[in-house]
């Protein structure tokens, strides 16, 4: 057996694995970008801007779910390499959600709170689905930490939903 007969398939597999992690990272980074845009939209108090940003965020979550669900299980190294994307996403959410909460009275006066609450409830479910797919792709011994990230995201969403539920 020639060495090239062995090396070419291995190189192809490694290339595919790197591409897979790159796709997942890009999908998570796109969600982060949309979260940042959503924060900006809420700061404007413009209903059309807010709805548009929430729709764009929904789309990025849906697209990321497809990317992750179509991916193979991740190796330990691949899973760990995604940590910075998860941390960046969580930081964006931690910065955006206080703004989303704080402008609720203004949005309520514009009669938008109910629609925004409904959108955020749907988003919470979609993020939960994405999170479950991500956790399932992780090596078993990393799943607990990955699930902790999903639980933290869920709590963040519940905090926003609670604020928007007070008047609806």
UniProtKB/TrEMBL annotation:
Keywords: Signal
Keyword Signal part of the UniProt annotation: yes
Superkingdom to which the source organism belongs: Eukaryota
Signal peptide (residue range): 1-19
Record carries keyword Signal: yes
PROSITE patterns to which the protein is assigned, alphabetical: PROKAR_LIPOPROTEIN (PS51257)
Entry's transmembrane regions: none
InterPro entries listed in its UniProt record: Cell_wall_mannoprotein_1
Cited Gene3D superfamilies: 1.20.1280.140
Annotated protein name in UniProt: Cell wall galactomannoprotein
Upper taxonomic lineage: Eukaryota, Fungi, Dikarya, Ascomycota, Pezizomycotina
């Amino acid at each position: 057996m020639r060495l090239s007969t062995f090396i070419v398939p291995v190189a192809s597999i490694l290339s595919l694995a790197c591409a897979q992690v790159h796709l997942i990272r890009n999908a998570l980074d796109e969600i982060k970008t949309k979260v940042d845009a959503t924060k900006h939209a809420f700061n404007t108090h413009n209903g059309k801007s807010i709805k548009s940003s929430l729709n764009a965020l929904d789309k990025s979550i849906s697209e990321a779910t497809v990317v992750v669900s179509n991916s193979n299980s991740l190796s330990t190294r691949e899973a760990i390499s995604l940590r910075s994307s998860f941390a960046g996403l969580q930081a964006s959410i931690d910065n955006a959600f206080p703004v989303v909460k704080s402008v609720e009275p203004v949005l309520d006066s514009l009669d938008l709170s109910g629609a925004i609450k409904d959108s955020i409830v749907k988003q919470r479910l979609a993020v939960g689905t994405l999170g479950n797919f991500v956790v399932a792709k992780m090596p078993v011994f990393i799943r607990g930490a990955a699930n902790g990230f999903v639980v933290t995201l869920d709590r963040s969403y519940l905090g926003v939903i609670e604020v928007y539920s007070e008047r609806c």
